[in-house]
Write a structure and sequence with these properties.
Strand content: over 45%
Radius of gyration: 27 Å
Order of helices and strands: EEEEEEHEEEEEEHEEEEEEEEEEEEEE
Number of helices: 2
Helix content: under 10%
Distance between the termini: 76 Å
Length: 359
């Protein structure tokens, strides 16, 4: 270091895929101080290791770090088949949509989830931070590992195919079905009544149950999800990724949008506001419009739609609600064109507005 008379006279790449690096490829000066070399094509779904050995102008040798690279295959492996036959250290190439992006479950490294058309998902893990966003479709190659009970594709590299893709439909589970633990890494949805909540090790746990069983929803503080938006006794639908911790199932939820009042109501925020039914948008509409409303105090509510004769044509929301701002998309494609009335009711207040369906 610091000796300006020292220059690289020659360099080679030593490489291999069987745990040894006995193959050699020459390197050449490509531009200025940049050297380049070519490694022969390797078998798909193999794990390449290589290092660079440089010799300077006085005959001294210098070895680089050992680098590792998973070699992708044009033939994709389904995530369901990986789950069915887990082989640690196997190199696999998968393609799917990101259901939970990086930077949410843990910062400073990559811990994301991907699901493909086989209906199963798995974790993508790397000690390096990578930018993976929900809805990204990627092709990834890496090493399979069962880390405890978490199925990972680690040491992976990827190509971004497209962004903003529709998410896979979650598996609809009861709390008892979720507790079976067969949905590791997979996008799932559980609905029920919140029976308990508590802080635990950098996150928040929510116990959700029905008449027969309960299951745990895990929300890490790093997600930024508003855990104050619900309380004991609230009915909620949670969408997330199946996981197991200390032998017990837990659903990992990472987005506010994945916590809904059943029947598709989205919790926009939990700040108490004056009771109001906000203007539908769009209006007139064809065939769907977004309805939003605010609740000042917790209690029972209903959001229903009537035709001009006073007949109920849709019951969009019904049940107990915490305070806050909520919204729902109403699809009226099954109805005929005309004027309809949307009515919001609480035990003490009521609001109504006219909307027009135009086909």
């Amino acid at each position: 270091p610091g000796d300006e008379t020292q220059t690289i006279a020659s360099a080679v790449i030593m490489y291999g895929t069987d745990g040894t690096m006995l193959n050699e490829a020459d390197m050449w000066v490509e531009d200025g101080n940049t050297w380049a070399g070519i490694i022969d094509a390797q078998d798909a779904n193999s794990f390449l290791e290589y290092e660079i050995i440089a010799t300077d102008n006085i005959g001294a040798e210098f070895d680089s770090y050992t680098y590792e690279l998973a070699i992708a295959s044009a033939e994709l492996t389904t995530i369901a088949s990986i789950h069915a036959n887990i082989v640690n250290d196997a190199v696999e190439t998968i393609q799917g949509t990101i259901t939970i992006g990086s930077g949410l479950l843990q910062t400073g490294m990559t811990k994301a989830y991907i699901e493909d058309g086989s209906g199963r998902g798995m974790q993508l893990f790397s000690f390096d931070e990578m930018e993976l966003n929900r809805g990204d479709m990627i092709t990834a190659v890496g090493v399979v590992e069962l880390y405890g009970t978490t199925l990972e594709l680690k040491d992976f590299s990827y190509d971004l195919n497209s962004t903003g893709n529709e998410l896979p439909a979650p598996m609809m589970l009861t709390p008892g079905e979720a507790n079976a633990g067969n949905y590791e890494g997979t996008f799932v949805q559980v609905s029920g009544v919140i029976t308990d909540t508590w802080e635990a090790g950098g996150g928040h746990n929510v116990l959700v149950g029905d008449d027969t069983d309960t299951t745990t929803v895990r929300i890490w503080n790093t997600t930024g999800v508003n855990v104050d938006a619900f309380g004991i006794g609230d009915s909620r639908s949670f969408t997330g990724v199946g996981s197991t911790y200390n032998g017990a199932f837990q659903m990992l939820v990472a987005y506010d949008e994945d916590i809904q009042v059943p029947d598709g109501v989205v919790i926009v925020d939990n700040q108490p506001r004056a009771f109001a039914l906000n203007p539908a948008y769009p209006n007139p509409f064809n065939p769907s419009t977004t309805l939003s409303w605010t609740i000042q105090e917790a209690g029972e509510l209903s959001l229903r739609v009537f035709d001009v004769r006073g007949r109920e044509v849709a019951n969009l929301a019904q049940g107990y609600s915490s305070p806050g701002l909520f919204s729902i998309t109403w699809d009226a494609s099954a109805l005929s064109s005309g004027v309809y009335f949307v009515q919001l009711n609480s035990p003490t207040q009521s609001a109504i507005q006219k909307v027009m369906l135009v086909k």
